[in-house]
Structure prediction request, 577 residues.
Amino acid sequence: MLREANPTQAEPAIRNNTTTRPGSRESSRGLGMERDITRRDFLNATLLASGGLLLTPASPLELLQARGASNLNDDWTGYGGVGDYANSNGNTTAILEAGHQIRDGMFESLPPSLIDSHETYDCVIVGGGISGLAAALIFQRQAGPGKTCLVLDNHPIFSGEAKRNEFLVDGHRLVAHQGSAFYPVPYPRSFIGRFYESIGLKTPRLEYQNWGGPAPQMPLSRTPYLGSAPYGLFFGAKFGQTEGLWLTDPWGKKLEGAPISAKARNELLKFQSAGNAGAQGPQYAGDAISRRLDAITLEAHMIERHGISRETIRTFLSPVEGGGYGLGPDALSGYTAYAADMLHPLDISDETGQQMFPDGNGSLARLITKTLIPESIAGEDSLEDVCRNAVNLAALDRPSAATRVRLDSTAVWVKHDGDPAKSEFVTIAYTRGGKTYRVTARSVVMAGGSWTTRHIVRDLPQDHKTAYSQFYRAPCMMANVAVRNWWFLYKMGISGCQWFEGLGNYMQVHKLATCGAHAPTISPRLADGPHHQSSVFLPRPAHRTTGPGGACGDDCDSVPRIRTPNPSAIHRHVCPL
Ligand SMILES: Cc1cc2nc3c(=O)[nH]c(=O)nc-3n(C[C@H](O)[C@H](O)[C@H](O)COP(=O)(O)OP(=O)(O)OC[C@H]3O[C@@H](n4cnc5c(N)ncnc54)[C@H](O)[C@@H]3O)c2cc1C
Prediction:
């Protein structure tokens, strides 16, 4: 059945930040601004580039070449770092091409060259992200001994969106998340709480790096997201500040000194201080409030709830309020404001709630995989071992194992054998190394994402197809930047910042959980402790990104919303175009 990341010698770095005028020719050359920039340069070489910025005026490409990086001829894929995830830096060219073959209809019918593996599983799971891996574990536990399960994933490593990247900088191995970052603390005996415990996450709160060095301690965030640690706002040319203007402690100063209108200031202060008081949020997914919220945009809901203008939302709040979804609030459902709360975590606060492994939820995927296939990651069942030790790729897909994870395998065809209502078997075809293979299963779980599922499952019911066609995929880019020091930020009293123009939106230096951190302490200066901190820079798409090729514009709210039968399942739909 088919179911469904020095300044003792502080001076050089500070010099770079104080005596080189932003935008000057020297500064531009140091940044490699006169060169062409490729997706690879930006997506994958940002870490190298920042290191180079502090030391030598080399371009990302030169840094890559100096390191003998592979993939130099591949502008799409680029450098992926080191370690288990080095070849899995986002969607590589190979993944992209396999996906386009599906999109372009190359597998409308099974190819004559199909190789029958003669393998039959009790369950095949398409997608080796957290969902697929968790499904495999639950299957393993509930189906009982002797039952077999195969997880297919198109990447060279499992984890899906919750992958990590590892980089070697001055001999230090830095770990950072690719996409998925924090997890909220669940109630102890909740489903998620029990699941975490069962995969070895015995206490949901992690230990983090301590402050190092003589400089007075500054509170630091545990995640790349702004909120709990002191941050500043930067205003540039868009606000008439050609040299740039920093506002630190913006909320303590009540935005005094910000080059914005009085109206925008008042509205931002109102929004910032709102909290949850008086919020008419849903009690449970699907109740009347959630259905109403799902029928209006997030932007409309913000206007209604906070009494703030569309202009303020679009100028200052858009990328963050909608950013995690890659779309702006003008396109997202109002329900998104509460969707995460509807998971009913015990604690989602910045102060104690949000927890993060050094590689984000990559470690959750590793914990699940280690539980599924104990030999898959060397060492004990401890958090440290699972976070630090290498993946034993050979152990993932052993013929004798009841549960197998097969990588570099793109499912291209899934169909019941005969009438879906009566069929006992499902055929799954997948491509690997240029060949197409067939396996059979008694049940299939599609955990690869609706944007591929609808092209792969050949006998998907029409209502599923219609529902899936309402989803859009939008780009949302995160970049990890290794810095040898962040003394210049520390001297300003901040560890993160936000800006409102150009590429990106905010960045945050954050401390790491010690289970996988390269050092037990974090300090702003090279001389005071370990050499590197990992910080995160989050470029986000601008607001009004409403789906392929279009924006709703000011009339967005007059466009009928797509209603969703189950708001908990579908909360990121967009305006019909
Ligand atoms: C930028 C970003 C930041 C996020 N931050 C957070 C956060 O801080 N905290 C949080 O809790 N959540 C966060 N999320 C959400 C969270 O990461 C996802 O909900 C979760 O990782 C999804 O897991 P998944 O297994 O459902 O899907 P995915 O992780 O997408 O896994 C699906 C896997 O299936 C593969 N696949 C797809 N099609 C096929 C095919 N045909 N054949 C074989 N394999 C296929 C994919 O390549 C992928 O490896 C974030 C998401 C994004 C995008």
